[in-house]
Prior knowledge:
The N and C termini lie far apart (72 Å). Strand 11, helix 12 and strand 12 form a beta-alpha-beta unit. This protein has helices spanning 2-13, 23-30, 32-36, 42-74, 95-102, 132-141, 172-189, 226-232, 241-253, 264-280, 301-310, 323-331, 342-355; strands at 86-89, 109-113, 123-125, 149-152, 195-199, 205-208, 222-225, 236-239, 257-261, 292-296, 316-320, 340-341. The protein is α/β, with parallel strands linked by helices. The protein is globular, with a radius of gyration of 32 Å.
Amino acid sequence: xxxxxxxxxxxxxxxxxxxxxxxxxxxxxxxxxxxxxxxxxxxxxxxxxxxxxxxxxxxxxxxxxxxxxxxxxxxxxxxxxxxxxxxxxxxxxxxxxxxxxxxxxxxxxxxxxxxxxxxxxxxxxxxxxxxxxxxxxxxxxxxxxxxxxxxxxxxxxxxxxxxxxxxxxxxxxxxxxxxxxxxxxxxxxxxxxxxxxxxxxxxxxxxxxxxxxxxxxxxxxxxxxxxxxxxxxxxxxxxxxxxxxxxxxxxxxxxxxxxxxxxxxxxxxxxxxxxxxxxxxxxxxxxxxxxxxxxxxxxxxxxxxxxxxxxxxxxxxxxxxxxxxxxxxxxxxxxxxxxxxxxxxxxxxxxxxxxxx
Length: 357
């Protein structure tokens, strides 16, 4: 019965709260049974009003929380980060970028991507094929004014070592445009020039040329590479994973002869690039019999894994890209210093470079 009276009070009294002066008279006019409960104090009405106020406040909190969650999901949220935080432009499945984020505090990095990453809530949406204003608004939302650096991962994770000519997520000419736009945005907004770090192959190139019916017009070719981008704009650093790994190979070889081991398909795909890059770093085959270092790398990592676990070759160092193969080697008794895990080598160099800003 009390429940009925309370409901009646809610329905009738609340719309006229400003003019309530004698609640018992109103109760009498509403219903005899309500008047019989004349002893109910006006304080009950106040409690009801307070309850409604609390409900309204909770609704506001819930709605605000829901709006924030929608902004997080869509990648359109305004973030306030620690000064010096890193802005990471990553593609789908960029393990090195993901691990870099996980190795840092939650307010030290913002991931900028075409889709929501699984490993962080601190992200913003950006499509590399978007327009200038899209990039500008993304940088503003991510605290670009006090960021430490912009980090790009245009190379594909599964081809990060000795990649083919098209093994990239973002083409060199597109990356050139983005770097140019960043510098314009900084100038327009009055921001200091931040370091741009490119994680990719220095020999990835975009070619542009003019042709007529007979062929290429003389001196019309324009080649854009990650190397040329790093030289074109101020404060741009290129970290080439292949170079990082091969420098480690030369260190391990210690003047020994270096042999490349793979299937026939792997030899055809990688051997020429392997030795060309080693030669660029100063490698010369040893003329004396000081031993041999064998480096294993193949098109499919299960082939490299099988060769490694067979343990038929002394001084055999496999180049490993995936966490699954790394874990398999460790399970089978290999120590971390007995194989070359590319993501760790690149991460070490990237972390050191980023900390120098």
